[in-house]
Amino acid sequence: MSEQSVHHGLLTDPVTPWQNWGRAESSTPAFRARPRSYDEVGAVVRVARERGLTVKAVGASHSFTDIAATVGVLVELTELRGLVSADAASGRVTLRAGTHLHELPAILDPLGLALENMGDIDRQTIAGATSTGTHGTGARFRGLAAQIAGLKLVTASGELLTVDDEQNAELLPAARLGLGALGIVVEVTLQCVPAFLLRAVEHPEPFDEVLDTFEQRAVESDHFEFYWWPHTDAVMTKNNTRLPLDAPGKKVGPVSNWVEETLMSNWVLALKSGLGTALPRTIQPLNRLATRVYGDREYVDRSYEVFTAPRNVRFREMEYAIPRSSLAQALRDIRGLVERQGWDISFPVEVRVAAPDDNWMSTAYQRESAYIAVHKYFREDHLPYFRAVDQLLRSYDGRPHWGKIHFQDAAELSTRYPRFADFRALRDRLDPDRVFTNAYLDRVLGA
């Protein structure tokens, strides 16, 4: 084994190349590391820097971009998981960075706490989800990174930097959503809220009716979203209303839940996607059938049970944040684009909303935002569809989700974010030699 491999016993030769969940990105790191402590993370960074290697941390590899790809040292956070400390009275909970979102209920439930808001996938790590801007939906609720009260990261010098309301507080708006460009996040303190229930109402409705009343629905509901199946005139609306924990429950029965979440949302979608790949002309009638048989239910359950759902069918995704007031016209434009191009799109288009926040690189920075997410089955060529939608949403001052496929670069992104130059200046300060860079960060932040 090479000198690099034995130094501190931390670096090991890679067994296999790295690949993301969506199977769109891969790379072959020179070495892998699985540090078991913050000190070991620092040692990995120092060793890599001495050898002229770049370093990238990876969590669950659930980003659809190459944001975690590296030909240097890949730092896997699998050994840095679990609870560090908790204060139920203040709602502050500190976690190691590699803790997965799906592990949080077991940690937070005994404390009577919950995350204020969540996305619909819980496979990510807390550091990966916040560093790329995972959000959720709700016009009065901010994304996951905005729930961070403090964090610790290992900088390019290998030192541990604490950023919270007492130390380096001015860095919080940048470090909460740092794209992996400022250092390796090893610990996160979340501001949680008292645990709560959600009443979920899922119902199919006409496309134009929902768009005509979109802003009203978004503002009046705690958590509103909808899915539009291309080639149809129907959308599936989802309204989630927050309830106290002692409100009467109305859980979905195990059989009904299996039919909806496993059979319809995964097995049937997989079958439909596979059939559509082999026989594209079956997609449109299958989408129309889906609008008649998929979802129409009401139930009450713990917040995390309602927010999240299993996603077992591999896909690729692009998501853009645009001004909320532009959503209706933008989605109609996408519908017209699909019709003109004659594409057969098997996956639904997802629409969500988020409240403004003050994180410099947040897609919702100081803006009432709506999100449009387009998807493609991972065995299909996503590029023509994604590139066309990407170009269309740029005209709406679109900000692409950092963990999802997009085609913008630093020159254009600098016009989207008022604090873009400040973020780059902080990157110059914390990582002047670009220890944490890769091709993705060179593209979106500048080499």
Give a verbal description of the structure.
By secondary structure, the protein is α+β, with helices and mostly antiparallel strands. It has 15 helices and 21 strands. It has helices at residues 3-6, 38-50, 104-108, 126-132, 172-175, 207-212, 214-220, 254-278, 283-293, 303-307, 327-341, 383-394, 410-413, 420-430, 439-445; strands at 11-12, 18-19, 26-27, 31-33, 55-58, 73-76, 83-87, 92-96, 113-114, 148-154, 160-164, 184-191, 193-194, 196-206, 223-228, 234-244, 297-302, 315-323, 349-354, 369-377, 399-400. The strands form 5 sheets. The protein has an 8-stranded antiparallel β-sheet, with helices on both faces. A 5-stranded antiparallel β-sheet has the order 7-8-12-10-11. α11 packs antiparallel against α12. The protein is globular. The model is unreliable at 1-8 (pLDDT under 50).
Low-confidence stretches: 1-8
Mean pLDDT: 91
- State the distance separating the first and last CA atoms: 33 Å
Strand line-up in the sheet with most strands: 17-14-16-15-19-20-18-21
Label the structural class: alpha+beta
Biggest sheet record? 8 strands, antiparallel
- Kindly provide the radius of gyration, computed on alpha-carbon positions and rounded to a whole number of angstroms: 22 Å
* Number of continuous helical runs: 15
Proportion of residues in β-strands: 15-25%
**Assembly form of the protein:** single chain
Judging from the principal axes of the Cα atoms, what is the shape?
globular
What share of residues is helical? 25-40%
User: Could you give the count of β-strands?
Assistant: 21
